[in-house]
Design a protein that fits this description.
Elements (H helix, E strand, L loop, with lengths): L3 E7 L2 H14 L6 E7 L4 H11 L5 E2 L9 H19 L3 E5 L3 H12 L4 E4 L14 H11 L2 E4 L2 H9 L7 E3 L3 H7 L11 H9 L2 E6 L8 H15 L4 E6 L4 H10 L6 E4 L4 H10 L2 E4 L4 H7 L4 E3 L7 H6 L2 E3 L4 H13 L1 H8 L10 H12 L14
Parallel strand pairs: 1-2, 1-4, 2-3, 4-5, 5-6, 6-7, 8-9, 8-11, 9-10, 11-12, 12-13
Length: 385
């Protein structure tokens, strides 16, 4: 029986964090699988950090990133580039991840060539096509193309079933980001960044914050930063570490509101491994990121989500995250409550992580091997108990 050619396609750091453990798992089956890695490098520098960490050298690298690129630019360059790559490699299955522009372009390129598509982290929905933008439609359109749907949770599976996806094409796996954390976070990890080391050495408790969403640019971010600043003023043993996104519109507001503030440590965007280890040392995390809502609960860290909607309601239901939006009072009050109310803090920190057990990649590869006739064995689905 010839080897099954499985092409993974990704282009951003969040995708790479979640797909690299899957590439490693595919490589554990050299007798039956031929893994092919294609990256668009929609985000060049941040992607390379993760590839280096996991020791993965892409077979194809489109290197499409350009200064000032628009969604039109990324979509057309990725689609055209992946057409050529897929025509050359002729994979039997293309795996895309999540909800980036690369995800949708990769699925569409495979569909045009009539190559089956597997969607990793399938079924996330907010129900609002403009929040988050453009991710909500990227994942819905990818879901319409996909032949195999690897849903991280039963909630995601139920979303797909409501959209009339064939139940036999859906498999609940848990989230591959938990697989990645298992190899990344270390108790004795040392940070190269002196700013982070100073914050850790001088302050008993850390608040870690990240902001980057388009819908939060400008005044919403300003409200968040002022709320955090005022919460810190009431908790003298707490410092904030803030890796600041490279977007000039983010940096402008950060400089105006937080630069020079006591116990606020501004630093450059961090590689995946140091950031994962920083989260493991934090007390509280404030973020508008999607992936952090999954990672932090695995580390036992309460998360305040600086958004009005989330495609990860399982965490809200489980009590590991709380949606606070960007309203000044809501952010300030919830931050203070976590920092001052021990029982409230424990109720979030000790809630069971609904996103996985570190076995998602094994389940995905096992399902593929079964579906394509390489084994009779079918792995167990992920189930939170």
């Amino acid at each position: 029986m010839k080897k099954l050619k499985v092409m993974t396609v990704f282009g951003t750091r969040p995708e790479a964090i979640k797909m690299c453990p899957l590439v490693q798992e595919l490589r554990r089956h050299p007798d039956t699988l031929e893994p092919i890695v294609a990256v668009t490098a929609q985000h060049r520098e941040m992607l390379d950090q993760v590839l280096d960490l996991f020791g993965i050298v892409p077979d194809y690298d489109l290197n499409i990133m350009q200064g000032g690129q628009t969604l039109y630019d990324v979509t057309t360059r990725a689609l055209t580039g992946l057409k050529e790559v897929m025509e050359k490699a002729r994979p039997d299955l293309v795996l895309v991840h999540g909800d980036t522009t690369t995800t949708f372009a990769g699925a569409l390129a495979a569909y045009y060539l009539q190559i089956p598509v597997g969607h990793v982290e399938a079924g996330l929905r907010t129900g609002n096509k403009y929040s988050p933008f453009p991710e909500e439609m990227n994942r819905k359109l990818t879901g319409a193309i996909a032949d195999l749907h690897f849903a991280p949770t039963t909630t995601s599976r139920d979303n797909l079933l409501r959209e009339n996806v064939d139940p036999a094409a859906i498999f609940v796996t848990g989230n591959t980001v938990i697989d990645a954390l298992a190899t990344t976070v270390q108790a004795d990890y040392r940070f190269d960044d002196p700013v982070v080391e100073e914050a850790l050495s001088r302050h008993p408790r850390l608040l870690v914050m990240t902001t980057h969403r388009r819908e939060n640019l400008g005044e919403p971010m300003r409200h968040v930063y002022r709320a955090v600043k005022d919460a810190l003023a009431q908790c003298p043993d707490v410092a904030a570490v803030f890796p600041v996104h490279k977007n000039p519109k983010v940096r402008e507001v950060v400089q105006a509101e937080l630069a020079g503030q006591d116990r606020v440590y501004l630093t450059e965007p961090m590689d995946y491994q140091p950031f994962a280890n920083l989260m493991s040392r934090a007390s509280v995390i404030l973020t508008d990121s999607g992936g952090i809502q999954e990672e932090a609960p695995a580390l036992g860290k309460p998360v305040l989500v600086l958004r009005g909607t989330t495609e990860r309601p399982e965490a809200v239901a489980a009590g590991t995250v709380r949606l606070v939006g960007t309203d000044y009072d809501a952010v300030r009050n919830e931050t203070l409550r976590l920092l001052t109310d021990r029982s409230y803090y424990q109720s979030m920190a000790e809630a069971v992580n609904p996103y996985g057990d570190g076995q998602a990649c094994r389940r995905i590869v096992g399902f593929i091997l079964n579906r394509f006739g390489y084994t009779d064995e079918m792995p167990d689905e992920f189930n939170v108990q």
